[in-house]
Design goal:
The complex is a heterodimer.
Chain A lengths: L2 H21 L7 H11 L3 H9 L7 H27 L16
Helix pairs in contact in A: 2-4, 3-4
Chain B lengths: L7 H22 L4 H23 L4 H25 L5 H27 L8 H28 L13 H21 L3 H20 L7 H23 L2 H24 L4 H6 L25 H9 L3 E6 L1 H5 L3 H13 L3 E6 L9 H8 L7 E3 H4 L8 E5 L8 H4 L18 E6 L19 E5 L2 H14 L1
Parallel strand pairs in B: 1-2, 1-4, 2-3, 4-5, 5-6
Helix pairs in contact in B: 1-2, 1-9, 4-5, 4-8, 5-6, 5-7, 5-8, 6-7, 8-9, 11-17, 13-17
The chains are: A mainly alpha, B alpha/beta.
C-alpha cells in the first residue's frame, strides 16, 4: 500500500466518522431534505466528470463526455433546487402565514 | 488526475477543495434544525460553486469548452426546471432519479479513467484498479437500481414486489459475474473485457435487486441507493486522487447508511431481510387474534366524525402513504385549522417509515403549511394516544396494525407501531377494505372503538372540514 493511498484512506475514514456524527443530529422531520441535500452533495462527482471529459484527450468520445457531465450536472442542480424548495416550506408554529398553497 | 509534483496552482486548487469539504460538513451540520437548515443548504451550494470554479482552472478550455456548455449547461437547465416543476408528492421519484444520475456519472468517470490507463500500460497498480472497479460497480448498481425505483414510484411499473422462482440464484450468478470480472480486472488478466463484464453485470444486478422490493420498503431502498452513490463518488475520488470527492462521498455514504439502518430498525427487520425477503407478498390468514377484535367493522358518517372531532380535546392525526396518493395534505391542514378554531389540540403522529422515503410525511405536511412543531415522532407521540379523544388515521395502514404487537405469526410482528388503538376513538379514512402494502389484514378495523369512513382521503377530509366549520 502506497503512502498516497494511506493518506487518502485516512481522509475517507475520518470523513465517514464526521458524517455519522453530523447526520445523527438531524431530526427526523428533516430526513427528506437531508436525503436531498446529500444527494446534491454527491453531485460533486461533477468535478470528476469535468476532469475526465474535458481533459486534453478525452477517452470517452464527444457523446459520452457530454453525457457524463450532463448526468453529474443534473444531479447537482436538481438536488440543490429540490432541497431548497423543500426547506422553504418548513415553518414553525409562530408564523401563521398561509401563502397560496400551490400544488 | 492523480496528484503529481504539486505546483502552486495545484496547491491553491486543493486548498479550494478543502474549503468545499468544510462547507459540505457545515451545511449538513446546519440541517440539525429547521430554522438553520436553509442556511446550511446555501453553505453547501457555496462549497459546490467553489469546487467547480477551482476545477475550471484545470480544464483545457480550448479543446472542449462545448462539453461544459452542453453537458453542464444542459444538466443545469433540465435539473433546475424539473426540480421546480415537480409536485411535492412526486418528490421520492425525483430524489431517486437525481441519485441515479450521480451514480451513473461516477461509474462513467471511473470507466473513462480505466480506458485511459488500461491499454498498453504495463499494469495499473492494484489499488488503482480496485478503486476503479469499486467505483464502477457501485455506481452502476446505483444507476440502474435508482431507475427501477423511479419507475416503481412513478407507477410506470407496479409497486408490488416482482418475484420469480430461482430469483436468489439468478442474483447470486450475477453477483458472481461481478466478482469474477472484478478479480480479473484487478489481476490484470484480459482486463478490458473483464472490466466491462463486471460493469454490465453490476448494472443488471441493480435492476434485479430493486425489482422484488415492495412499495412499503421504498424508504429503505432509497436510503440505501443514496448511500451507494455516495460510496461510488468516494471511490471515484480514490481513482482521481481527489480529496473533495473522497470527503463528500464519505459524508453521503455515512448519511445513507445511517438512514438505511434507522428505516430498517423502524420496521424491525434487517437490511438483508428487506433486500431478499420480498416483503409485501400477500400473506393469507395472518391477521387473527388481537384482543378485542370483533370480526365486524363499524362504518361512520361524515357528520358523526365531524361532531366527535369538534368536541374533542386532543386529536392525533396519523398520515400515511394514502394521504400522499390522494394529495390530501392541504385538506388535512384545513381540517386542522377548523378544529383549532374550536380549541381542539391537533397533533400529527409520524411513523418513521410512513410514505415512500424517510421523512416523506413531514415534507408533505410542511408543503401544506402545517408547522413542524405539530409533527411528533413515534416515541414522543405514543404515550399521548391514551389521552387522545380521537386518532384520525388517514391513509396509513401497516404502521397502525396492532397485530405487530401480539400476533407472532404476522409478517410485521415486532415492528414498532403507532398505538392508535389506545385512543378513546379511532377513525380510519380508507378507500376500501383493501389490505395495505404488506398485504396483511389490520385487526385495528375490527376493534370496538374503531370507526371506518370509506372514500377518497381528500374528499373525506374536505367533507369533514366543511362539516366541522358548519357546526
Amino acid at each position: 500500500m502506497s503512502a498516497h493511498l494511506l493518506a487518502e484512506l485516512t481522509v475517507f475514514i475520518l470523513a465517514v466518522f464526521v458524517g455519522f456524527e453530523v447526520i445523527s443530529k438531524v431530526p427526523t422531520t428533516l430526513h427528506t431534505p437531508l436525503m436531498s441535500a446529500t444527494n446534491a452533495i454527491h453531485g460533486i462527482v461533477l468535478v470528476g466528470a469535468l476532469l475526465v471529459a474535458v481533459a486534453a484527450a478525452p477517452k470517452l468520445g464527444p457523446v459520452l463526455s457530454v453525457v457524463v457531465v450532463f448526468l453529474a450536472s443534473l444531479n447537482v442542480f436538481g438536488g440543490y433546487v429540490v432541497t431548497e424548495r423543500m426547506l422553504s416550506m418548513f415553518k414553525p408554529r409562530e408564523s401563521p402565514t398561509r401563502d397560496g398553497s400551490k400544488r | 488526475m492523480p496528484a503529481e509534483a504539486a505546483s502552486t496552482a495545484q496547491i491553491a486548487i486543493d486548498a479550494a477543495y478543502l474549503v468545499t469539504g468544510v462547507c459540505f460538513i457545515l451545511g449538513l451540520r446546519f440541517l440539525s434544525h429547521p430554522k438553520t437548515a436553509r442556511t446550511g443548504n446555501r453553505i453547501s451550494m457555496l462549497g459546490m460553486a467553489i469546487a467547480l470554479v477551482a476545477t475550471g482552472f484545470l480544464l483545457d478550455w480550448n479543446s472542449a469548452w462545448w462539453v461544459v456548455a452542453v453537458g453542464l449547461g444542459g444538466g443545469a437547465l433540465v435539473g433546475i426546471y424539473s426540480a421546480r416543476a415537480v409536485k411535492m408528492t412526486a418528490m421520492p421519484q425525483m430524489v431517486a432519479i437525481f441519485n441515479g444520475a450521480g451514480g451513473g456519472a461516477a461509474a462513467m468517470v471511473a470507466a473513462a479513467e480505466f480506458l485511459k490507463l488500461a491499454p498498453g500500460s504495463h499494469g495499473i497498480s492494484w489499488d488503482e484498479s480496485l478503486a476503479i472497479v469499486l467505483s464502477s460497480v457501485i455506481g452502476a448498481i446505483s444507476f440502474s437500481g435508482s431507475i427501477i425505483a423511479f419507475l416503481k414510484l412513478q407507477e410506470v411499473m407496479t409497486g408490488r414486489p416482482l418475484t420469480y422462482p430461482g430469483q436468489q440464484f439468478v442474483n447470486g450468478l450475477v453477483a458472481l459475474a461481478i466478482l469474477t470480472g472484478a478479480a480479473l480486472t484487478i489481476a490484470g488478466v484480459d482486463s478490458v473485457p473483464a472490466y466491462f463484464v463486471a460493469l454490465a453485470a453490476a448494472a443488471l444486478l441493480g435492476i434485479l435487486f430493486v425489482l422484488p422490493i415492495g412499495g412499503a420498503d421504498m424508504p429503505v431502498i432509497i436510503s440505501l441507493l443514496n448511500s451507494f452513490t455516495g460510496l461510488a463518488a468516494a471511490m471515484t475520488g480514490f481513482v482521481l486522487g481527489n480529496n473533495v470527492l473522497i470527503i463528500s462521498g464519505a459524508l453521503v455514504g455515512a448519511s445513507g447508511t445511517l438512514l438505511t439502518m434507522l428505516m430498517s430498525k423502524a420496521m424491525n427487520r434487517s437490511i438483508a431481510n428487506v433486500l431478499f425477503g420480498a416483503f409485501g407478498k400477500i400473506v393469507a390468514g395472518a391477521g387473527g387474534s388481537v384482543p378485542g377484535a370483533t370480526g365486524a367493522i363499524r362504518e361512520a358518517t361524515v357528520d358523526d366524525v365531524a361532531t366527535m372531532l369538534a368536541y374533542a380535546k386532543l386529536v392525533i392525526v396519523v398520515p400515511g402513504y394514502g394521504m400522499a396518493v390522494a394529495q390530501a395534505q392541504h385538506s388535512v391542514r384545513e381540517l386542522e385549522v377548523q378544529l383549532e378554531k374550536l380549541g381542539v389540540d391537533v397533533k400529527y403522529a409520524i411513523h418513521p417509515v410512513a410514505g415512500r422515503m424517510p421523512g416523506h410525511m413531514n415534507v408533505l405536511l410542511a408543503e401544506a403549511n402545517v408547522p413542524y412543531t405539530a409533527l411528533y415522532d413515534m416515541d414522543d407521540i405514543n404515550p399521548e394516544f391514551p389521552r387522545a379523544d380521537v386518532a384520525l388515521v388517514i391513509g396509513a395502514n401497516d404502521v397502525t396494525n396492532p397485530a405487530a404487537r401480539t400476533v407472532a405469526s404476522s409478517p410485521i410482528y415486532g415492528m414498532p407501531i403507532l398505538d392508535v388503538d389506545k385512543a378513546h376513538n379511532v377513525v380510519v379514512l380508507k378507500r376500501s377494505m383493501k389490505p395495505g402494502f404488506a398485504g396483511i389484514d389490520n385487526p385495528l378495523y375490527e376493534l370496538p372503538n374503531t370507526m371506518m369512513l370509506f372514500g377518497d382521503a381528500k374528499a373525506s377530509v374536505d367533507k369533514l372540514a366543511s362539516a366541522v366549520k358548519a357546526l
